[in-house]
Amino acid sequence: MQTNLADFIKGTRDGDEAEAILRACVHCGFCTATCPTYQLLGDELDGPRGRIYLIKQVLEGVAPTRKTQLHLDRCLTCRNCESTCPSGVQYGRLADIGRKVVEARVARPLHERVGRATLKALLPRAAWVKPAVAAGRLARPLLPQALRDKLQPAPAPRQWPRREHARKMLVLDGCVQPALAPNINAAAARVLDALGVQLVAAPRAGCCGALRFHLNDQDGGLDDMRRNIDAWWPHVDGVEAIVMTASGCGVTVKEYGQLLAHDPDYAAKAARIAALTRDLSEILPQFEGELARLYATRVEARIEGHAAGQPPQRLAFHPPCTLQHGQQIRGKVEGVLRAAGIDVVLCADSHLCCGAAGTYSILHPQIAHALRDRKLACLAATGATGIISANVGCISHLQSGTAMPVSHWIELIDRMLTG
User: Fold this and answer.
1) pTM of the entire structure?
2) CA–CA separation, 187 vs 349, rounded Å?
3) What average pLDDT score do residues 52-69 get?
4) Model confidence at 17: pLDDT above 70
5) How does pLDDT run across 335-367, given as a tens digit for each residue?
6) What is the 3-state secondary structure (H, E, C) of 275-343?
7) Ramachandran sector of residue 47 (left: φ over 0; alpha: ψ -120 to 50; beta: rest)
């Protein structure tokens, strides 16, 4: 793709990066076939190729409009198009650059400014989210549907293990997960404890930075990333990995090195943190033999009369976009579960987004609900009795549309091992 960037961005870090991405695009359109919003809305400008043209025009000096902003807002940033693209176009990064420019040049309506400011101020702060979620659950019937969807009942966390182990790994608590699904990290800690690994949470680590960054407060998002690096840095020499139990956080932390490459104070540290980061599904396969042994022991206990921990007959796995497209991890969760004797299946069109996409399901509930209902229909068609996933946003979004239980896959492993 030929480019002629405008003076305001030509020669800048963002401009050089955007130009390289644009020049990689060959207009083939393969991306439109796997874009959820294009499939749903049928508008070329609501697909990756159309959005690339919009961003190109803006970076070449064409004044963006409210319509430009709307088409870019509607993108889920699921990055399915990146998995499809034969030219390796880094669409997600280009979208970040384009949205940043448009956000600075197009004024939003007051209600959007207030809504986005509230999300940016509240959600990255776990200390604020917990009481807000508790209050919201009490007042749930009075809230808008988009907020009610996020406030599904959640099981209380089981006890965090207290044993010390020589092998240690860090874990990110995150921002909304401790309030919406506090048992996920506790389950991961319990499973790893059974495998001889201690999971440690650094007290000052919080939001991974994705929330503010993708709401176009990129400076605020980078500050969140720097805070996490500072919190983890004293521990990095004593841990094997930084474990992510939410794939949405994992894809962001793995990109710290790229996102902070321009910061002389943090570039090297960010690269080290990114290199240490692993999704939980990348950690568990190395313990498959031990897991199988522990699970066999549990089965023997059930045979003797203890029925707790029996998994459902068939489970459908929804791989989050941040896992399969952002991190390019496929098959690992299914492998761990099948090694434990679970019948786990993928649904038709498993590559497509469920519509959660961070704050997307709050800001664009109509599109998010349509994608959710499509996904749930495909999951139900598998004949599964339960749904598992790997990201808290997907879990709460899917649960809002079905009576079938939706949980994190590590919670299932925890139940199987410990009852």
Assistant:
1) 0.91
2) 29
3) 97
4) yes
5) 999 888 889 999 999 999 999 999 999 999 999
6) HHEEEHHHHHHHHHHHHHHHHHHHHHHHHCCCCCCCCCCCEEECCCHHHHHHCCCCCHHHHHHHHCCCC
7) beta
Distance CA 341, CA 42 (A): 42
The answer to whether the CB of 205 falls within 8 A of the CB of 227 is yes
DSSP letter at 344 equals: E
Q: pLDDT, tens digit, for every residue of 239-278?
A: 999 999 999 999 999 999 999 999 999 999 999 999 999 9
Kindly list the structural domains of the chain, giving each domain's residue range(s) and its CATH number in brackets, ordered by start: 13-105 (1.10.1060.10), 283-418 (3.40.50.1860)
- Taking only the tens place, the pLDDT of each residue in 76-133 is 999 999 999 999 999 999 999 999 999 999 999 999 999 999 999 988 887 777 777 7
Question: What span, in angstroms and rounded, lies between the C-alpha atoms of 349 and 190?
Answer: 33
CB of 94 within 8 A of CB of 367?
Answer: no
Burial degree of 158 (CB within 10 A; 0-12, 13-18, 19+):
middle
Residues 6+ apart with CB under 8 A from 68: 54, 58, 102, 106
Distance CA 167, CA 217 (A): 37
CA atoms within 13 A on the CB side of 222: 15
Rounded to the nearest 5 degrees, what angle is found at the Cα of 99, between the Cα atoms of 55 and 49? Answer: 35
139 by Cβ neighbours in 10 Å (0-12 / 13-18 / 19+) ranks as exposed
